[in-house]
Write a structure and sequence with these properties.
Layout: E1 2-4, H1 7-19, E2 24-29, H2 35-47, E3 50-55, H3 75-84, E4 89-91, H4 95-98, H5 117-120, H6 124-139, E5 143-147, H7 151-163, E6 169-173, H8 193-198, H9 201-212, H10 220-234, E7 238-246, E8 260-268, E9 271-279
Parallel strand pairs: 1-4, 2-3, 2-5, 3-4, 5-6
Antiparallel strand pairs: 7-8, 8-9
Helix pairs in contact: 6-7, 9-10
This protein binds pantoate.
Length: about 280
């Protein structure tokens, strides 16, 4: 695996592969890699000749009171994992190479980038949209793979690529879960043993709510209220939101008359977990 720290190094290395007629898939990450990320490398390997993973903890997507300072940084072991998984290139830029002191541009996606996670993290999607646009401009990959675990993020990225005519296909890959259903996330390592035991209740509540939505006389607001009670009863400290949305526009819906998605974010102590499940059209 070739490791490049600068934009010019990675662009030079990828240009050679492109000249050789090979296709390139990008897997942007913030490091602290787990099996969920590595499954994205597998998907990228299946659909392209060369895979480039990026590791960069993006300051733009963290709020002032969020965990930018403490976000796990494990670059050396991340690089080992990527290499073992058959990743061909790793791009590990420095902050200054991507963001000069007078950097002043923001990519902001209205609609799908509003509501849901944006309610409590107002800077998050602008930060993600800006860094992902930059990474796609730098790498010019044929495809880029992102996890469905961050469902709203995936929708935001699909939208910006379409709106800005960026010639990269965005591929969503299924969420990888622990054996008890908890969605894999770099933030799971913040959980204490007791909190870790509570955490799978989020996926359980979502799958139960999705099932209830398919009962003939379902009422979404009753299902939502019961699911929130279920989460608080299981030990979650608070529920940021539990929304039933159109799977593509992320607009709120109440009936299973089209492909839908249940999206949720909830706190256990100081850790905020997100998850989502599909709701098939009846
Ligand atoms: O999902 C992530 O890890 C990040 O939000 C991303 C897409 C790498 C942008 O920093």
């Amino acid at each position: 695996m070739i490791i490049c720290k600068t934009k010019s190094e990675i662009q030079g290395a990828l240009a050679k592969r492109r000249q050789a007629g090979e296709t390139i898939a990008a897997v942007p990450t913030m490091g602290a890699l787990h099996e969920g990320h590595l499954s994205l490398i597998d998907v990228a390997n299946e659909i392209s000749d060369q895979v480039v993973a990026t590791i960069f903890v993006n300051p733009l997507q963290f709020g002032a009171n969020e965990d930018f300072g403490t976000y796990p940084r494990t670059v050396e072991s991340d690089l080992e994992l990527l290499k073992a998984r058959g990743c061909n290139f790793a791009f590990t830029p420095d902050r200054n190479d991507l963001f000069p002191a007078d950097f002043s541009t923001k990519i902001s996606v209205a609609g799908v980038g509003e509501d849901h996670c944006a309610l409590s993290r107002p800077q998050f999607f602008d930060g993600v949209a800006t860094i992902v646009t930059k990474l796609l401009m730098i790498l010019s990959p044929d495809v880029a793979v992102f996890g469905e675990k961050d469902y709203q993020q995936l929708a935001v990225i699909k939208r910006l690529v379409r709106d800005l005519d960026i010639a990269t296909e965005i591929v969503g890959a299924p969420t990888v879960r622990e054996s008890d259903g908890l969605a894999m996330s770099s933030r799971n390592q913040y959980l204490s043993v007791e909190e870790r035991n509570v955490a799978p209740a989020l996926y359980k509540a979502l799958t139960a709510a999705a099932e209830k939505l398919h009962s003939a006389d379902h009422n979404w607001s009753e299902i939502r209220d019961a699911s929130i009670e279920q989460l608080l009863g299981a030990g979650f400290s608070s529920v940021d939101y539990l929304h039933f949305v159109d799977a593509f526009s992320l607009a709120h819906i109440e009936k299973v008359d089209r492909p839908g998605r249940l999206l949720a974010a909830a706190w256990i102590g100081k850790t905020r977990l997100i998850d989502n499940v599909p709701v098939e059209a009846a």
